[in-house]
Amino acid sequence: MTAGSTRPVAVGAFAAVLAGLSLLHLGTGLADNGDFDRSTYFLLEKPAGFATNWPPYDTPERARRILGEWHDRWELAAGAPRLHAGMTASSYKPILAAQVGLDRLVTGDGEYSFVVGSLPLRAVLVAGVVALVATAAAEAPAAAVVLALLLGLAALETSFAAFLNSAFEDQVAIVFLPLLALFTWRAAAARSRRAALAGLAVAALVGAAKPAFFYLPLLAAPFLWSALRVTTTAGRAAAVAAVVLAQAIALVPPLVNRATTRVNAYQALYYGALLPLSGAELAEVRVRGAPAVRECVGVRAFVRPEGPACLERAPGSLAAAAAILATHPRAAAALLGRAVAKGADVELAYLSKRAPGRACFAELPPFRFWTGVFRRLGRAVLALSLLAAASLHLAPARVRGSGAARAAGLLAVFGALQYPVSLADGLVETQKHVLVGNYSNVLALSLAAAVLAAAAARALRRAPPRPEEEALAHARTAAR
Fold it and tell me: Considering only CA atoms, which of 130, 137, 118, 166 is closest in space to residue 7?
């Protein structure tokens, strides 16, 4: 049996193992941090078993409802779809609507189960990872082995997979970034315009999931452009139009989400840009023509009782925060350093991943590999991801032009940029805000490792035999 004939069997076996293990995460989710309502209000009322969606502060019910427990089953809202001022525009909303529709077809019991709704997304995630491994296997078996190991552990990592049983918009990126890597790879390897357009479509879908991802289509365009580029004027115009359309779609959330932007602007300024300033520097700051409110520096918007009062007294400004960081490079470097220090972890330990009475396998060692890596080497992952991407693009043409190298470069840059972008909400929940960035860096490192494994395998095949090996071969020939 040849290597080519065993390849589909090996990839199929990997797919079966990955799919089977991923089902063990059906009992693992993420507790609400108070943000679910932005995504779920238009269709869902509250978790089943609660009298109200917002129990009073400082009560056991509030502790269970927010942060303390993950809740799988939610009551459907009467009169859905509903609108309210705090809702966000996101590509996750039509996905959630489809999930709720699927659940009603399957159960028809008037409640929504995140477990049932997550099944199609789990299938997409597994399919994306398996397709990447299959693409690597067609080019170099060594690369496929490395990619299967590292990407398999990423797809099974509790810190990432738990998002699929939640209403956090980040899950769109977790599910679809492997597909963006796949299309970027295929677009570069085969100069496939269809793959490049599919990559742009995925970039638009992920970019529109959350304001922090808005720049993804524009970032992806240079990595896909060699496949999009055509010689005719009409073709070039169509390629540019495709990029503009994808970017326009991704710009909808930051342009529409006015209610959340007000809070973000306050926190970007008072729990972000103003924190590293000295007293003298702070005295010079003007926000919309008025001095900064010193008592509100370091106060988060939702911390009672000071937070809501500061949100009213001290209006924030994203433009003012950006101007302060641009004119105070020392403060900007210090703030970014704090973001990296806070964000170089993926565990999100403050959000429960367990539901009452549910079996949970979140702590199994294979499901905690990347959590352990980040706990010990979190900052190094970010640095290595960028270093690996840069090294690949400085390597010989054969390596530099490979599809995997292109995909690694795209994901590394996207992941690194999540750190400065997270400062648009100050240092609030930095760990969660950069989690997709860390996930993207994991994917980038995995692809870079696969490229290096393929290059090493090629070098070993081309290496001339050592003198002692030649002498032994001659001796065997003479003896025969």
Answer: 137
State the pLDDT at residue 12.
Answer: 95
In terms of Cα–Cα distance, which of 263, 272, 264 is closest to 308? 263
Q: Specify which residues 44 forms β-bridges with.
A: 76
* DSSP label of 464: P
Is residue 173 within 8 A of residue 90, CB to CB? The reply is no
Do 399 and 392 contact (CB within 8 A), yes or no? yes
Helix or strand (DSSP H, E) at 59 = none
Question: Residue 291: beta bridge partners?
Answer: 286
Helix (H) or strand (E) holding 44: strand 44-47
Tokens of 163: 């998002």
Q: Which is nearest to 182 in space by CA: 127, 117, 115?
A: 127
Of 287, 302, 273, 301, give the one whose Cα is nearest residue 420.
273
Reported as a single tens digit per residue, the pLDDT across 230-260 is 777 888 888 999 999 999 999 999 888 766 7
d(CA 156, CA 361): 11
Report the C-alpha gap between 158 and 147 in whole angstroms.
19
Q: Tokens in use for 95?
A: 């996905």
Angle at 389 between CA 451 and CA 182, to 5 degrees: 60
Are 306 and 299 in contact by the 8 Å Cβ rule? The answer is: yes
Q: Give dist(CA 399, CA 457) in Å, integer.
A: 13
The pair phi, psi for residue 236, each rounded to 5°, is -65, -40
* 74-107 tens-digit pLDDT: 999 988 888 877 678 999 999 999 999 999 998 8
CA distances from 246 to 227, 251, 365, 400, 437 (A): 16, 9, 39, 26, 20
The pTM for the full model equals: 0.92
Q: What is the pLDDT of residues 62-83, one digit of tens each?
A: 999 999 999 999 999 988 888 8
Among candidates 56, 42, 27, which has minimal Cα distance to 95?
A: 42
Q: For residue range 360-381, list pLDDT tens digits in order.
A: 898 998 999 999 999 999 888 8
Report residue 465 as tokens: 């035999």
Which pair of structure tokens corresponds to residue 227? 């496949």
Give SS3 for 45: strand
21-44 per-residue burial string, b: 16 or more CB within 10 A, e: under 16? bbebbbbbbbbbbebbbbbbbbbb
Q: Which of 354, 347, 353, 335 is nearest to 428 (CA)?
A: 335
**Positive or negative torsion for Cα 277, 279, 284, 285:** positive
Q: Is the pLDDT of residue 1 over 70?
A: no
Would you say residue 226 has pLDDT above 90?
A: no
Nearest to 179 by CA among 125, 219, 245, 120: 125
H-helix or E-strand spanning residue 441: helix 435-462
